[in-house]
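Notes from the 1:1 (GR / supervisor)

We went over the backlog. Supervisor wanted to see one worked example end to end before approving the batch request, so GR pasted a single chain during the call. The sequence is below; no edits were made to it. Supervisor asked that the structure be written out right there so they could see what the output format looks like.
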Amino acid sequence: MATVEGREEHLRLAGIIKGLHADLRKKFKKCKDADDFEQIWKEHCEDTDTLRQYADAMHHLAKDHWTRLPETRIDWCRKTILEYFHGDGLKKALEKVARRTKVHQLRRLQNECLDQKKNDAFENRQTDGTGSNTSDKEVLCGDVATHDLQEVDVKKACSSDTDPLPVIATDIGVPFKGRIRLLDVGSCYNPFGAFDEFLSIGLDISPANSMVHRCDFLNLELTNPDPVGLSKDDPLGSLPDSVTELPRQSFHVVVFSLLLEYLPLASQRWTCCCHAHQLLAGNGLLVIVTPDSHKQHRNAAMIKSWRLAVESIGFVRWRYVKLDHIHCLAFRKLEVGEVRDKVVGPASPDMLYIPQDFHEDEEVGVTGHTDADNEDISKTFEELPSCCDSVESD
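Structure output shown during the call:
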Protein backbone atom coordinates (compact mmCIF):
# COMPACT_ATOMS: atom_id res chain seq x y z
CA MET A 1 0.00 0.00 0.00
CA ALA A 2 1.30 3.44 -0.83
CA THR A 3 2.55 5.58 2.05
CA VAL A 4 0.91 8.87 3.00
CA GLU A 5 4.03 10.69 1.86
CA GLY A 6 3.95 8.89 -1.47
CA ARG A 7 0.29 9.73 -1.95
CA GLU A 8 0.90 13.39 -1.18
CA GLU A 9 3.81 13.48 -3.62
CA HIS A 10 1.63 11.85 -6.26
CA LEU A 11 -1.02 14.54 -5.80
CA ARG A 12 1.57 17.32 -5.86
CA LEU A 13 3.04 16.11 -9.14
CA ALA A 14 -0.40 15.66 -10.69
CA GLY A 15 -1.26 19.18 -9.56
CA ILE A 16 1.68 20.56 -11.52
CA ILE A 17 0.39 18.80 -14.63
CA LYS A 18 -3.15 20.10 -14.31
CA GLY A 19 -1.95 23.57 -13.38
CA LEU A 20 0.06 23.97 -16.57
CA HIS A 21 -2.76 22.59 -18.72
CA ALA A 22 -5.29 24.99 -17.20
CA ASP A 23 -2.98 28.00 -17.41
CA LEU A 24 -2.21 27.34 -21.07
CA ARG A 25 -5.91 26.98 -21.93
CA LYS A 26 -6.67 30.21 -20.11
CA LYS A 27 -4.07 32.11 -22.12
CA PHE A 28 -5.35 30.74 -25.42
CA LYS A 29 -8.97 31.62 -24.61
CA LYS A 30 -7.94 35.25 -24.40
CA CYS A 31 -6.47 35.21 -27.91
CA LYS A 32 -8.24 37.13 -30.65
CA ASP A 33 -6.50 35.94 -33.80
CA ALA A 34 -4.08 33.38 -35.20
CA ASP A 35 -1.06 35.61 -34.59
CA ASP A 36 -1.88 35.68 -30.88
CA PHE A 37 -2.13 31.89 -30.82
CA GLU A 38 1.27 31.50 -32.45
CA GLN A 39 2.89 34.02 -30.13
CA ILE A 40 1.55 32.39 -26.98
CA TRP A 41 2.62 28.94 -28.17
CA LYS A 42 6.08 30.28 -29.00
CA GLU A 43 6.39 31.84 -25.55
CA HIS A 44 5.21 28.59 -23.98
CA CYS A 45 7.86 26.58 -25.83
CA GLU A 46 10.51 29.06 -24.68
CA ASP A 47 9.46 29.00 -21.00
CA THR A 48 12.17 26.53 -20.06
CA ASP A 49 11.73 26.75 -16.28
CA THR A 50 8.02 25.91 -16.35
CA LEU A 51 8.51 23.21 -18.95
CA ARG A 52 11.35 21.66 -16.96
CA GLN A 53 9.14 21.51 -13.88
CA TYR A 54 6.39 19.88 -15.95
CA ALA A 55 8.79 17.37 -17.53
CA ASP A 56 10.21 16.41 -14.14
CA ALA A 57 6.70 15.93 -12.74
CA MET A 58 5.64 13.72 -15.65
CA HIS A 59 8.86 11.72 -15.42
CA HIS A 60 8.44 11.05 -11.69
CA LEU A 61 4.76 10.18 -12.08
CA ALA A 62 5.52 7.69 -14.82
CA LYS A 63 8.61 6.11 -13.24
CA ASP A 64 7.76 6.23 -9.53
CA HIS A 65 3.97 5.95 -9.38
CA TRP A 66 2.39 4.54 -12.54
CA THR A 67 4.84 1.64 -12.75
CA ARG A 68 3.26 0.19 -9.58
CA LEU A 69 0.06 -0.53 -11.47
CA PRO A 70 -0.67 -4.05 -12.84
CA GLU A 71 -0.36 -2.67 -16.36
CA THR A 72 0.66 0.79 -17.56
CA ARG A 73 -0.28 2.79 -20.65
CA ILE A 74 3.16 1.92 -22.04
CA ASP A 75 2.46 -1.78 -21.49
CA TRP A 76 -0.84 -1.47 -23.35
CA CYS A 77 0.75 0.40 -26.25
CA ARG A 78 3.56 -2.15 -26.56
CA LYS A 79 1.18 -5.11 -26.39
CA THR A 80 -1.11 -3.59 -29.01
CA ILE A 81 1.71 -2.68 -31.38
CA LEU A 82 3.29 -6.13 -31.16
CA GLU A 83 -0.06 -7.82 -31.74
CA TYR A 84 -0.57 -5.68 -34.83
CA PHE A 85 2.86 -6.23 -36.41
CA HIS A 86 3.91 -9.65 -35.10
CA GLY A 87 0.55 -11.21 -34.28
CA ASP A 88 -2.36 -11.52 -36.68
CA GLY A 89 -3.42 -7.86 -36.55
CA LEU A 90 -1.77 -6.56 -39.71
CA LYS A 91 -2.27 -9.85 -41.54
CA LYS A 92 -6.02 -9.89 -40.90
CA ALA A 93 -6.34 -6.21 -41.78
CA LEU A 94 -4.63 -6.73 -45.14
CA GLU A 95 -6.72 -9.83 -45.85
CA LYS A 96 -9.85 -7.77 -45.27
CA VAL A 97 -8.53 -5.03 -47.56
CA ALA A 98 -7.95 -7.64 -50.28
CA ARG A 99 -11.48 -9.03 -49.90
CA ARG A 100 -12.99 -5.56 -49.95
CA THR A 101 -11.00 -4.63 -53.05
CA LYS A 102 -12.12 -7.82 -54.80
CA VAL A 103 -15.78 -7.14 -54.03
CA HIS A 104 -15.47 -3.53 -55.16
CA GLN A 105 -13.90 -4.56 -58.47
CA LEU A 106 -16.46 -7.33 -58.97
CA ARG A 107 -19.33 -4.89 -58.49
CA ARG A 108 -17.76 -2.45 -60.89
CA LEU A 109 -17.35 -5.18 -63.50
CA GLN A 110 -20.94 -6.32 -63.01
CA ASN A 111 -22.20 -2.80 -63.58
CA GLU A 112 -20.09 -2.44 -66.72
CA CYS A 113 -21.36 -5.78 -68.07
CA LEU A 114 -24.94 -4.87 -67.23
CA ASP A 115 -24.68 -1.57 -69.08
CA GLN A 116 -23.09 -3.25 -72.08
CA LYS A 117 -25.74 -6.00 -72.25
CA LYS A 118 -28.53 -3.43 -72.03
CA ASN A 119 -27.04 -1.40 -74.86
CA ASP A 120 -26.38 -4.47 -77.05
CA ALA A 121 -29.88 -5.85 -76.54
CA PHE A 122 -31.54 -2.53 -77.31
CA GLU A 123 -29.44 -2.03 -80.45
CA ASN A 124 -30.33 -5.56 -81.62
CA ARG A 125 -34.03 -4.83 -81.14
CA GLN A 126 -33.68 -1.68 -83.23
CA THR A 127 -31.81 -3.61 -85.94
CA ASP A 128 -34.65 -6.14 -86.09
CA GLY A 129 -36.99 -3.30 -86.97
CA THR A 130 -39.27 -3.72 -84.00
CA GLY A 131 -39.38 0.03 -83.49
CA SER A 132 -39.23 -0.09 -79.74
CA ASN A 133 -40.10 3.11 -77.91
CA THR A 134 -38.95 4.37 -74.52
CA SER A 135 -41.28 2.08 -72.60
CA ASP A 136 -40.11 -0.88 -74.70
CA LYS A 137 -36.53 -0.05 -73.75
CA GLU A 138 -37.34 0.03 -70.05
CA VAL A 139 -39.02 -3.39 -70.23
CA LEU A 140 -36.20 -4.83 -72.29
CA CYS A 141 -33.55 -3.59 -69.88
CA GLY A 142 -35.48 -5.13 -67.03
CA ASP A 143 -35.61 -8.47 -68.82
CA VAL A 144 -31.88 -8.43 -69.50
CA ALA A 145 -31.06 -7.49 -65.94
CA THR A 146 -32.84 -10.54 -64.59
CA HIS A 147 -31.52 -13.06 -67.11
CA ASP A 148 -28.69 -14.90 -65.31
CA LEU A 149 -26.58 -11.76 -65.53
CA GLN A 150 -25.25 -11.84 -62.00
CA GLU A 151 -24.16 -15.47 -62.23
CA VAL A 152 -22.37 -14.90 -65.53
CA ASP A 153 -20.59 -11.76 -64.32
CA VAL A 154 -19.55 -13.25 -61.00
CA LYS A 155 -17.87 -16.14 -62.81
CA LYS A 156 -16.16 -13.74 -65.18
CA ALA A 157 -14.95 -11.47 -62.38
CA CYS A 158 -13.70 -14.30 -60.20
CA SER A 159 -11.79 -15.86 -63.08
CA SER A 160 -10.10 -12.62 -64.10
CA ASP A 161 -7.21 -10.82 -62.48
CA THR A 162 -8.11 -7.83 -60.33
CA ASP A 163 -6.06 -4.68 -60.26
CA PRO A 164 -3.90 -4.58 -57.12
CA LEU A 165 -3.62 -1.44 -55.02
CA PRO A 166 -0.76 0.87 -55.99
CA VAL A 167 2.43 -0.26 -54.28
CA ILE A 168 4.33 2.44 -52.39
CA ALA A 169 7.96 1.67 -51.56
CA THR A 170 7.44 2.48 -47.88
CA ASP A 171 4.13 0.61 -47.41
CA ILE A 172 4.11 -2.04 -44.69
CA GLY A 173 3.29 -5.62 -45.67
CA VAL A 174 3.36 -9.11 -44.21
CA PRO A 175 5.28 -10.85 -42.90
CA PHE A 176 6.68 -7.84 -41.06
CA LYS A 177 10.44 -8.03 -40.67
CA GLY A 178 12.95 -6.04 -38.67
CA ARG A 179 12.51 -3.63 -35.81
CA ILE A 180 9.49 -1.37 -35.54
CA ARG A 181 10.27 2.30 -36.20
CA LEU A 182 8.31 4.16 -33.54
CA LEU A 183 7.88 7.92 -33.07
CA ASP A 184 6.79 8.88 -29.55
CA VAL A 185 5.50 12.47 -29.57
CA GLY A 186 5.37 14.18 -26.19
CA SER A 187 7.66 11.40 -25.05
CA CYS A 188 9.12 12.94 -21.89
CA TYR A 189 11.71 10.19 -21.24
CA ASN A 190 11.39 7.79 -24.25
CA PRO A 191 9.90 4.79 -22.39
CA PHE A 192 9.73 2.72 -25.59
CA GLY A 193 13.50 2.92 -25.91
CA ALA A 194 13.73 0.20 -23.25
CA PHE A 195 12.31 -2.42 -25.64
CA ASP A 196 14.57 -4.09 -28.20
CA GLU A 197 11.77 -4.60 -30.73
CA PHE A 198 11.47 -0.83 -31.25
CA LEU A 199 13.67 1.73 -32.96
CA SER A 200 12.17 4.46 -30.83
CA ILE A 201 12.51 8.19 -31.44
CA GLY A 202 11.19 10.37 -28.63
CA LEU A 203 10.19 14.00 -29.24
CA ASP A 204 9.19 16.61 -26.67
CA ILE A 205 9.25 20.40 -26.29
CA SER A 206 10.98 19.78 -22.94
CA PRO A 207 12.83 16.43 -22.78
CA ALA A 208 13.29 14.87 -19.36
CA ASN A 209 16.54 13.18 -20.42
CA SER A 210 19.08 12.98 -23.23
CA MET A 211 17.24 10.07 -24.89
CA VAL A 212 14.55 12.48 -26.12
CA HIS A 213 14.97 15.03 -28.91
CA ARG A 214 13.71 18.56 -28.42
CA CYS A 215 11.00 19.28 -30.99
CA ASP A 216 7.93 21.45 -31.50
CA PHE A 217 5.84 18.87 -33.33
CA LEU A 218 3.26 21.46 -34.38
CA ASN A 219 5.86 23.29 -36.43
CA LEU A 220 7.81 20.26 -37.62
CA GLU A 221 8.83 20.43 -41.29
CA LEU A 222 7.91 17.31 -43.26
CA THR A 223 10.38 16.49 -46.03
CA ASN A 224 10.23 14.09 -48.96
CA PRO A 225 10.23 10.33 -48.25
CA ASP A 226 13.59 8.56 -48.31
CA PRO A 227 13.01 4.84 -49.06
CA VAL A 228 16.73 4.23 -49.63
CA GLY A 229 17.72 5.77 -46.33
CA LEU A 230 15.05 3.79 -44.50
CA SER A 231 16.65 0.54 -45.68
CA LYS A 232 19.55 1.07 -43.28
CA ASP A 233 19.67 -0.74 -39.94
CA ASP A 234 19.18 2.48 -37.97
CA PRO A 235 17.96 5.06 -40.52
CA LEU A 236 17.15 7.76 -37.95
CA GLY A 237 19.94 7.11 -35.48
CA SER A 238 21.90 10.28 -36.24
CA LEU A 239 19.18 12.82 -35.47
CA PRO A 240 20.37 16.03 -33.78
CA ASP A 241 19.39 16.93 -30.23
CA SER A 242 16.87 19.43 -31.61
CA VAL A 243 14.72 18.11 -34.44
CA THR A 244 13.08 20.53 -36.88
CA GLU A 245 12.31 18.19 -39.79
CA LEU A 246 11.56 14.53 -40.54
CA PRO A 247 10.90 12.67 -43.81
CA ARG A 248 7.38 11.56 -44.65
CA GLN A 249 6.44 7.87 -44.50
CA SER A 250 9.39 7.12 -42.18
CA PHE A 251 7.65 5.39 -39.27
CA HIS A 252 5.67 2.25 -38.63
CA VAL A 253 4.07 3.68 -35.47
CA VAL A 254 3.33 7.15 -34.12
CA VAL A 255 2.32 7.36 -30.45
CA PHE A 256 0.38 10.24 -28.86
CA SER A 257 0.32 9.22 -25.20
CA LEU A 258 -1.24 11.94 -23.03
CA LEU A 259 -0.36 14.46 -25.76
CA LEU A 260 -3.54 15.73 -27.40
CA GLU A 261 -5.21 16.91 -24.17
CA TYR A 262 -2.04 18.94 -23.45
CA LEU A 263 -2.80 21.12 -26.46
CA PRO A 264 -5.31 23.92 -25.76
CA LEU A 265 -6.79 24.10 -29.27
CA ALA A 266 -8.64 21.50 -31.32
CA SER A 267 -6.87 22.82 -34.41
CA GLN A 268 -3.52 21.93 -32.83
CA ARG A 269 -4.72 18.39 -32.16
CA TRP A 270 -5.83 18.17 -35.78
CA THR A 271 -2.42 19.36 -36.99
CA CYS A 272 -0.73 16.67 -34.90
CA CYS A 273 -2.91 13.94 -36.42
CA CYS A 274 -2.26 15.26 -39.94
CA HIS A 275 1.49 15.22 -39.27
CA ALA A 276 1.22 11.67 -37.95
CA HIS A 277 -0.56 10.58 -41.12
CA GLN A 278 2.21 11.98 -43.29
CA LEU A 279 4.99 10.52 -41.15
CA LEU A 280 3.50 7.02 -41.18
CA ALA A 281 4.06 4.49 -43.92
CA GLY A 282 0.99 2.90 -45.49
CA ASN A 283 -0.63 0.48 -42.99
CA GLY A 284 1.25 2.17 -40.17
CA LEU A 285 -0.35 2.56 -36.74
CA LEU A 286 -1.35 5.76 -34.91
CA VAL A 287 -1.77 5.06 -31.18
CA ILE A 288 -3.61 7.63 -29.06
CA VAL A 289 -3.91 7.52 -25.27
CA THR A 290 -5.98 10.17 -23.51
CA PRO A 291 -7.08 10.40 -19.85
CA ASP A 292 -10.68 10.19 -18.63
CA SER A 293 -11.52 9.68 -14.96
CA HIS A 294 -15.23 9.11 -15.67
CA LYS A 295 -17.12 5.92 -16.43
CA GLN A 296 -16.93 4.37 -19.87
CA HIS A 297 -19.90 6.05 -21.55
CA ARG A 298 -19.55 9.52 -19.98
CA ASN A 299 -17.44 10.84 -22.87
CA ALA A 300 -18.56 8.36 -25.53
CA ALA A 301 -19.67 11.21 -27.80
CA MET A 302 -16.20 12.75 -27.63
CA ILE A 303 -14.49 9.48 -28.53
CA LYS A 304 -16.88 8.97 -31.46
CA SER A 305 -16.13 12.50 -32.64
CA TRP A 306 -12.40 11.83 -32.39
CA ARG A 307 -12.80 8.63 -34.37
CA LEU A 308 -14.67 10.36 -37.20
CA ALA A 309 -12.13 13.20 -37.30
CA VAL A 310 -9.08 10.93 -37.35
CA GLU A 311 -10.60 8.58 -39.92
CA SER A 312 -11.38 11.51 -42.22
CA ILE A 313 -7.64 12.25 -42.40
CA GLY A 314 -6.95 8.81 -43.88
CA PHE A 315 -7.13 6.27 -41.07
CA VAL A 316 -9.44 3.49 -39.97
CA ARG A 317 -9.84 2.48 -36.35
CA TRP A 318 -8.22 -0.83 -35.54
CA ARG A 319 -8.71 -1.02 -31.78
CA TYR A 320 -10.38 0.85 -28.92
CA VAL A 321 -10.07 0.12 -25.20
CA LYS A 322 -11.57 2.05 -22.28
CA LEU A 323 -9.50 1.44 -19.18
CA ASP A 324 -10.37 2.68 -15.70
CA HIS A 325 -9.13 6.23 -16.25
CA ILE A 326 -7.96 6.28 -19.82
CA HIS A 327 -9.02 5.82 -23.44
CA CYS A 328 -6.68 3.88 -25.74
CA LEU A 329 -7.16 3.98 -29.51
CA ALA A 330 -5.20 2.56 -32.44
CA PHE A 331 -5.77 3.61 -36.06
CA ARG A 332 -4.36 2.02 -39.22
CA LYS A 333 -3.25 4.34 -42.02
CA LEU A 334 -5.07 3.50 -45.25
CA GLU A 335 -3.13 2.47 -48.31
CA VAL A 336 -3.30 4.64 -51.42
CA GLY A 337 -6.44 3.75 -53.38
CA GLU A 338 -7.90 1.61 -50.59
CA VAL A 339 -11.69 1.25 -50.55
CA ARG A 340 -13.48 1.81 -47.24
CA ASP A 341 -16.30 -0.30 -45.84
CA LYS A 342 -18.39 2.83 -45.46
CA VAL A 343 -18.20 6.43 -46.55
CA VAL A 344 -16.62 8.82 -44.06
CA GLY A 345 -18.52 12.09 -43.83
CA PRO A 346 -17.00 15.57 -43.72
CA ALA A 347 -14.95 16.40 -40.66
CA SER A 348 -13.35 19.49 -39.17
CA PRO A 349 -10.67 20.23 -36.55
CA ASP A 350 -13.23 21.19 -33.89
CA MET A 351 -14.31 17.54 -33.76
CA LEU A 352 -11.09 16.84 -31.83
CA TYR A 353 -12.46 18.57 -28.75
CA ILE A 354 -11.92 17.80 -25.08
CA PRO A 355 -14.36 18.66 -22.25
CA GLN A 356 -12.04 21.38 -20.97
CA ASP A 357 -12.53 23.32 -24.22
CA PHE A 358 -15.99 24.29 -22.97
CA HIS A 359 -15.13 25.15 -19.36
CA GLU A 360 -15.21 28.73 -18.21
CA ASP A 361 -11.94 30.34 -17.19
CA GLU A 362 -10.79 29.32 -13.76
CA GLU A 363 -8.05 30.70 -11.58
CA VAL A 364 -5.86 27.63 -11.37
CA GLY A 365 -2.34 27.76 -10.03
CA VAL A 366 0.31 25.11 -9.88
CA THR A 367 -0.46 24.19 -6.27
CA GLY A 368 -3.84 25.86 -5.67
CA HIS A 369 -6.06 22.75 -5.56
CA THR A 370 -8.45 21.38 -2.99
CA ASP A 371 -8.19 17.80 -1.79
CA ALA A 372 -11.15 16.93 -4.03
CA ASP A 373 -9.40 18.52 -7.01
CA ASN A 374 -6.24 16.59 -6.36
CA GLU A 375 -8.13 13.32 -5.96
CA ASP A 376 -9.72 13.87 -9.38
CA ILE A 377 -6.33 14.73 -10.86
CA SER A 378 -4.86 11.56 -9.42
CA LYS A 379 -7.64 9.40 -10.84
CA THR A 380 -7.30 11.06 -14.22
CA PHE A 381 -3.66 10.07 -14.45
CA GLU A 382 -4.00 6.55 -13.10
CA GLU A 383 -4.41 3.69 -15.51
CA LEU A 384 -5.89 0.47 -15.67
CA PRO A 385 -6.98 -2.79 -14.29
CA SER A 386 -10.45 -3.25 -15.81
CA CYS A 387 -11.24 -2.41 -19.39
CA CYS A 388 -13.77 -2.64 -22.18
CA ASP A 389 -12.01 -3.79 -25.32
CA SER A 390 -13.48 -3.07 -28.75
CA VAL A 391 -11.54 -4.46 -31.69
CA GLU A 392 -12.33 -3.52 -35.24
CA SER A 393 -9.89 -4.93 -37.74
CA ASP A 394 -11.09 -2.34 -40.23
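Supervisor's comment: Residues 72-113+168-359 form a domain with the Rossmann fold fold (CATH 3.40.50.150).
Batch request approved.
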